[in-house]
């Protein structure tokens, strides 16, 4: 029987059967959305991949309704688009400025909040990441990128604001989606990690204003490096 919205009985009271059916569908849709979103954000599902509702339904063993609702949510987040079928978004390098504008705003204020909420254990975790990044010359670019992502993701999470976390994930998706052919020089890598230490120092002092300033400067520095490489 197809999913329905709540019906009214002859006495005007809602029919609880369809409500339970609907609630179940929404829970399934939330689960499908979370699973697809994770696979898209981690690039397990590559940009440009076509998403077929029937195939997703079969692989996840759910009906088409929760799959369609999940895809609509992903479309609203800018992760998929619909044109003759569903497809995972590909981000054009021309969007680089908008991506960094978003990162400055999100990471800047998230870091301000993190300075007010970071515990000693969190600082030790962040310091370990920064120390590990000092050894960038002995690691692959992919390994360094992973450490860098973990550092910034952790700070945004420490803001305690799940909306910032969600928005940051989206900016990260679009940034890495572009597959930018940019290799930082030794000097640039050292400079950006020194900026990580400045952010960390402000967090350890609980200096919200300095934390936000250093975070914004760090994102702006990365933006300049990427922009100069692309323009060159």
TrEMBL record:
The keyword DNA-binding applies. The keyword Secreted does not apply. Coiled coil: none annotated. SUPFAM superfamilies: GntR ligand-binding domain-like, Winged helix' DNA-binding domain. Residues 1-18 have a biased composition (Basic and acidic residues). The lineage of its organism: Bacteria, Pseudomonadati, Pseudomonadota, Alphaproteobacteria, Rhodospirillales. Keywords: DNA-binding, Transcription, Transcription regulation. Residues 26-96 form the HTH gntR-type domain. This is FCD domain-containing protein.
């Amino acid at each position: 029987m197809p999913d329905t919205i709540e019906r009214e009985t002859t006495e005007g009271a809602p029919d609880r059967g369809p409500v339970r059916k609907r609630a179940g569908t929404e829970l399934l849709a939330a689960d499908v959305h979370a699973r697809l979103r994770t696979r898209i954000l981690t690039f397990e599902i590559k940009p440009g991949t076509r998403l077929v509702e029937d195939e997703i339904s079969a692989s996840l063993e759910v009906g088409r309704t929760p799959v369609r609702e999940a895809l609509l949510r992903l479309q609203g987040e800018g992760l998929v688009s619909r044109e003759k079928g569903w497809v995972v978004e590909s981000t054009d390098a021309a969007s680089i400025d908008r991506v960094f504008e978003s990162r400055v705003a999100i990471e800047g204020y998230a870091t301000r909040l993190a300075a007010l909420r970071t515990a000693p254990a969190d600082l030790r975790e962040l310091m370990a990441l920064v120390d590990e990044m000092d050894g960038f010359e002995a690691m692959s670019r992919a390994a360094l990128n992973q450490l860098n992502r973990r550092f910034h993701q952790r700070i945004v999470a420490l803001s305690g604001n799940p909306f910032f976390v969600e928005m940051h994930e989206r900016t990260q998706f679009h940034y890495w989606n572009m597959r930018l052919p940019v290799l930082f020089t030794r000097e640039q890598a050292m400079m950006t990690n020194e900026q990580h230490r400045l952010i960390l120092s402000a967090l350890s002092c609980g200096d919200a204003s300095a934390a936000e300033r250093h975070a914004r400067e760090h994102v702006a520095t990365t933006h300049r490096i990427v922009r100069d490489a692309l323009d060159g």
